[in-house]
Specification:
The complex is a heterodimer of chains A (121) and B (467). Chain A has 121 residues and is α/β, with parallel strands linked by helices. Chain A has a single domain (3-110), classed as 3-Layer(aba) Sandwich (Rossmann fold), CATH 3.40.50.2300. Chain A is built from five helices and five strands, in the order βαβαβαβαβα. Chain A has helices spanning 11-23, 34-42, 62-73, 89-92, 108-120, and strands at 3-7, 27-31, 49-53, 78-83, 100-103. In chain A, α2 packs parallel to α3 (62-73). The longest helix of chain A has 13 residues, at 11-23. Chain B is of the alpha+beta class and 467 residues long. Chain B folds into four domains: 3-118, PAS domain (Beta-Lactamase); 124-246, Beta-Lactamase (2-Layer Sandwich), CATH 3.30.450.20; 249-316; 318-467, 2-Layer Sandwich (Heat Shock Protein 90), CATH 3.30.565.10. Chain B is built from 14 helices and 18 strands. Chain B has a five-stranded antiparallel β-sheet with strand order 2-1-5-4-3, with helices on both faces. A five-stranded antiparallel β-sheet of chain B has the order 7-6-10-9-8, with helices on both faces. Chain B has a five-stranded mixed β-sheet with strand order 12-14-15-17-16, with helices on one face. In chain B, α13 runs antiparallel to α14. In chain B, 25% of the residues are buried. The chains are: A alpha/beta (121), B alpha+beta (467). At the A-B interface, α1 and α5 of A face α10 and α11 of B.
């Protein structure tokens, strides 16, 4: 069982994603933007993985910036990105090492597989 | 005559310049053949005549009088004295006159040797060249895009007014300098230098080399550089024309469109994510027997979303390249093959055909449905091959989705699930106005052949989408 921080600006998508992840026995923490997520990351809360949307509110590559800062704070953190856009070279160049990316819309099965893959690495 | 005079006479006769010898009174003592030919006269008309009286006084030229009466008496020789005159017999001529006083022993007055070179053609060519240059310059100045003309050594010969204005420099500041030295060395880019060095020796033009930089007084600009060799007939020296097209605004529009596309894509995908999520939520409280149907629904929404990025570009009025489209579908489906299905390989064998973007969605969903059926039912052992093919037959496209699995007779799947999948195939084929061809007997695996008319777009009409 892992503790996963879910960062997604759309409340409904975030809720469904958390529900899907909790179904497999994991715990979730949630944030709607970079600042909220960083506040949690800076706390002493145990976090095993970060699952973040790349496009966060006004910031087109907000999730990429967030993950880089998150890794600086917690080098052991695993990262799974999600995006509705086709990943561009500019985008993937910003990915933290060893990170995975899941395209939207993802099914429960796809999210489960990606989370399992992320946690296994 | 002494031997030396004979020898001198031979030399005088053979030199190409027109020569005449005058005595101290400017009486012509003799002239050579070149003189007679050039000025269309004869020894009889010439010898013994005062030079000014020659040929109806056509040699009575103020400039020549000045040379002979004012300059020669005080100097031993004069070189490169230019005389321009309208001769009644031979027309307007420019002559270069070299004069030398010849003094012989005991003869204090001596003679004057005049060597007259007709430089009219050379002067006319120079004037013509100057006129051409002025014409070129005026053309250069009327072109709105800034441009420069470079010598073979990459130094600037001329810069257009638009160039000087745009970069806020004077003509004097550009002439003789290299492009790389201008401004704040924005053009000093190794890749550009490399391309420019090939323009003249290899006659290889530069097409649309893009440079984005901060230019003093201009701010951030994007320029498209085009260069080609320019040659003048009869002139071996080649020059290079380098044109700077300011594409800043166009680039900005493209970027704005991309931002908008990304924004729309983000919203659509988020909405589809909500739908898929809600279906997942519903499935939690649904009887197990119905869950498969919910999952299939999620998969189809996923298929539409995955094709969306390709299809969304159809709003630009372009066609969709079938081969690239099938490869993209294969790539997406292959990426989803995990667990038991991870031994299945999806291959594409398609001709370069283009289809109308309006048909891309049902076409993509049809391929998705057939390939999904194969993945689900053809390989109980989890490995095998699926081939997606498309070829043009007449004015139709034949789509073939083939697998080397267990074949349709031996399927162990439930009839209902299979039937639904086939229903969708029938719906999409009907939507596309196509027909399903009967499967050939005794084939290993399952082969579905579908003829689709009216899908093809003739190539060359629209720009195909790169998938």
């Amino acid at each position: 069982m892992a503790i996963i921080l879910v960062v997604e600006d759309d409340a409904l998508i975030r809720m469904v994603a958390e529900m899907m992840i909790q179904d497999w026995g994991h715990e979730t923490l949630s944030a709607s933007d970079e600042d909220e997520a960083l506040a949690i990351l800076r706390s002493s809360q145990r976090i095993d993985a970060l699952f973040t949307d790349i496009y966060l509110k006004a910031s087109v590559l907000g999730g990429c910036n967030l993950a880089s800062q998150a890794i600086a704070l917690r080098p052991q953190l695993r990262v799974l990105y999600t995006t509705g856009n086709s990943p561009t070279e500019k985008m993937t160049a910003l990915f933290v090492a060893g990170a995975h990316c899941l395209g939207k819309p993802y099914t429960q099965q796809q999210l489960q597989d990606s989370v399992a893959e992320m946690l296994a690495t | 005559m002494a031997d030396s005079e004979i020898a001198a006479g031979d030399i005088v006769e053979t030199v190409p310049s027109a020569l005449i010898i005058l005595d101290q009174n400017l009486i012509i003592k003799s002239a050579n053949r070149a003189f007679y030919q050039t000025f269309r006269t004869s020894p009889q008309e010439t010898e013994g005549s005062l030079i000014y009286n020659l040929g109806n006084r056509q040699w009575d030229i103020p400039a020549l009088r000045n040379l002979l009466e004012s300059v020669i008496p005080h100097r031993a020789s004069v070189e490169g004295f230019e005389v321009e005159h309208d001769f009644p017999t031979i027309g307007r001529r420019t002559m270069l006159v070299n004069a030398r006083k010849i003094l012989r022993g005991g003869d204090h007055d001596g003679y004057i040797l005049l060597a007259i070179e007709d430089v009219s053609e050379e002067r006319a060519a120079r004037a013509e060249s100057r006129r051409n240059w002025q014409l070129t310059q005026s053309i250069v100045d009327t072109i709105r895009d800034p441009l420069v003309v470079l010598e073979g050594d990459m130094t600037i010969v001329t810069a257009s007014k638009a160039f000087l204005k745009m970069f806020g420099i004077t003509e004097a500041e550009t002439r003789g300098r290299r492009v790389a030295e201008l401004g704040q060395h924005q053009w000093d880019v190794p890749a550009l230098r490399h391309l420019m060095e090939k323009v003249l020796p290899e006659n290889k033009p530069i097409e649309s080399f893009e440079i984005e930089d901060n230019f003093p007084g201009l701010g951030l600009r994007v320029f498209n550089l085009n260069a080609r060799k320019i040659s003048q007939p009869g002139n071996h020296a080649h020059r290079m024309l380098l044109v700077f097209e300011d594409i800043t605004d166009r680039k900005q529009r493209e970027r704005d469109a991309l931002v908008l596309t990304n924004e729309i894509s983000h919203r659509i995908k988020n909405n589809l994510q909500i739908v898929v999520g809600l279906i997942a939520y519903e499935a939690k409280f649904t009887e197990a027997s119905c869950v498969q149907g919910y999952k299939a629904m999620q998969a189809r929404i996923g298929a539409i979303a995955q094709l969306y990025d390709l299809i969304s570009q159809s709003s630009l009025g372009r066609t969709v390249a079938v081969d690239a489209y099938l490869r993209e579908i294969a790539k997406v489906m292959s990426a989803s093959l995990i667990g038991d299905a991870s031994g299945i390989k999806i291959e594409v064998n398609a001709e370069a055909l283009e289809i109308d973007p309006d048909h891309a969605v049902p076409f993509g969903l049809l391929v998705n449905e057939l390939a999904t059926n194969a993945i689900k039912h053809a390989f109980p052992h989890g490995d095998g091959h699926i081939t997606l093919s498309a070829e043009q037959i007449g004015d139709e496209i034949e789509l073939v989705v083939a697998d080397d699995g267990i074949g349709i007779q031996e399927k162990v799947v439930t009839r209902i699930a299979q039937k639904r999948g086939s229903d969708y195939v029938a719906i999409f084929v009907r939507q596309l106005g196509g027909t399903i061809l009967p499967a050939p007997p005794d084939e290993r695996g399952t082969i579905v052949r579908i003829r689709l008319p009216l899908l093809l777009v003739s190539s060359g009409g629209a720009t195909p989408l790169a998938a």
